[in-house]
UniProtKB/TrEMBL annotation:
InterPro entries: HTH_MarR-typ, MarR/SlyA-like, WH-like_DNA-bd_sf, WH_DNA-bd_sf. This is MarR family transcriptional regulator. Residues 16-150 form the HTH marR-type domain. PANTHER family: MARR-FAMILY TRANSCRIPTIONAL REGULATOR, TRANSCRIPTIONAL REGULATOR, MARR FAMILY. It holds the Pfam family MarR_2.
Length: 152
């Protein structure tokens, strides 16, 4: 290996390490913010319950099986958390219009409103970070993040 190739490899490795550090910082900050947002939603619930609420808020009614698959949680955990959410009046079950034997989980009016209230804190934390960016910088960030996440 010539010296030039070795320097390129070293520079690339250094960049990849720096990227990893920034991704770890983002993941850690996001996790902390998710936990605080979940507590704002309902301090008596585990943060994992708020993950289910967030999924239902973002994507709408779904089956418990699809919710478990989409959140990478086991079905028994989802079932336990959904029962808690139902007991607190945040989630309800409805017959599936496509299959009357199937059941869809959906947020109640209360669950929807509490989600909006809880997310305001999260949105403000991220908005503060981007508020001084001009539109072109924000567009570039969105484009790069989309590329990184594999979204077109």
């Amino acid at each position: 290996m010539d010296n030039y190739t070795h320097n390129e490899d070293t520079a690339r490795t250094h960049l990849e390490i720096k990227l990893g550090e920034q991704l770890n910082a983002l993941i850690s900050a996001s996790h902390g913010l998710n936990v605080r947002t979940a507590a704002r939603f309902d301090i008596t619930l585990q943060p994992a319950a708020f993950l289910l609420v967030r999924w239902l808020f973002s994507f709408g009614p779904t089956s418990a099986t699809a919710l478990a698959e989409s959140t990478a949680m086991d079905r028994s955990s989802v079932s336990r958390l959904v029962n808690q959410l139902k007991g607190l009046g945040y989630v309800k079950s409805e017959p599936s219009p496509a299959d009357r034997r199937g059941v869809l989980l959906t947020l109640t009016k209360l669950g929807n409103q509490k989600t909006i209230d809880a997310l305001k804190e999260k949105e403000s934390a991220f908005y503060d970070r981007i508020s001084k960016w001009d539109d072109s910088k924000l567009e570039k960030f969105i484009e790069m993040l989309s590329d990184f996440n594999g979204y077109e």
